[in-house]
Every structure is written in structure tokens, then in C-alpha cells.
Amino acid sequence: MASDPTPPTRAADAAIDSVSVLGEDLRRRMFTFIRRAHRAVTRDEAAASVGISRKLAAFHLDKLVDAGLLRARYETPGGIRKVGRQPKVYEPTDTQLTVSIPDRRHELLADLLLDAVLTEGPDESAAQAATRTAGARGRRLGESEREQTRPGRLGAERGLTLCERMLDEHGYEPVRETPTDIRLRNCPFHPLAAKAPDLVCGMNHAFLTGYLDGLRISGVQAVLAPRPGECCVRLTPAEADAEADPDEGTAEDR
Prior knowledge:
Distance between the termini: 31 Å
Strand content: 5-15%
Largest sheet: 4 strands, antiparallel
């Protein structure tokens, strides 16, 4: 089964689009002015902040709204009701911009570690708690995906096609080497994985194993197969030899 040649839009793509909108100097200066105002700002105020006409300011402000960086509504500044149409005002959204090439997901790793700290059992080590937490998160993600898509019975080929979307969204840069084998070209937890490879690679493996379990894909397994510059895990047929290729490095080499 061929893989979909068009990868899904990721959060990183939206961030890049938003950053490109801020590449225009006047637009960026107005955005900074509105963020620092800590209140809704009118077009006239935004225009005056950079010394341009109200009409030109409206053009740039609407670009920022389209990019999801500002929200607009009609409101009388100061809450004073006046006769006539209320002016349009702008304020920043809660959008946070993070652009990393290649994609990194340090916030996911930090969230998993925080969950591990908060739920660590008396008979667990910190590493065991982290691995358990990662596996449970992956399983919930797979179960949620299965509930939304209702794919029925999933064999290896169709199951991996479904997996590719999640892998792409999480920055793994999946490459379908064969119909039943996916190599992950990017480690979304690098360079932190290089500092604690046993811990981070173990969590990564548990996360992807949990995802496969939650999605209920038959004939596929996540195996540790570290290769320099890539993710330490690959998805491969369950009956395949789980050992890494002879020419592959160790997790510490990444």
C-alpha cells in the first residue's frame, strides 16, 4: 500500500506561516505595540504607533488576524457607549510561536517527566515511572485516534499508513522504507536524548509501543534500532529481527 505523498499540516507549519507574516517591519511593530498594550487597541491607535494611515494599518492588522496572532472584535474603548458603529479593536491571542527545524518536541518530554514525578509509585524508580507514563500517554493517543477514525481491523500496511500522520505531526519525519517498515529520520527529543539516552530512548520506545497498542495494529512493533542522527526507534514487522543493523551506531552516537 502506497503512502500518502502529501504529509499532513503540522503545528510547525502554522508557526512558520505566522513568523513569515511578522517578517514585514510595520506589521511586526504594530504587533509588538498591541501585545504590550495589555488591552484592546483600535486601528487608529495601531496606525499612530508606527506612523501610517488607518487604511494601511487595517490591511496589516487583518493579516495578523488571518495568521492567528490577533483577534478582532467591535468594542468601544473604555466601555463608554456612543452613538454609531463601535470601532474595531484588536488584541493578541494566546498563540505561542516556536519554530524548530528539524522539529523538536521538548514540551512533550517535559510533560511526560512531570507526570512521572507526580505519579511515581513507592516501588518505582524515576526511570520506571517515566517509561510507564510515556507508554500510557502513547496508548491513550492511539485509542483516541482509533475512536475518531474507526478503522476496523488494522493490518501492518494500512496500520502504518494511519501511523504516519501522528509520526509526522510529532516531528519524527517518518520514511516508508517498505510497505511494513518505517524509519524515523528525526529524533524530536534531540539533543536531550544525547544527555540521557537510556532514559529518553526508553520513554520514546514506550510511547510508540503504547501508541501501536492503543491503535490495535497487528503485525507491527516498535523496536530500538539507534542510528546516528536519527530516532532510536523504528516501526517494523513484528516477526522481524528486533536487533539493530550491524552498521548502526548506539544511542550515545546521536
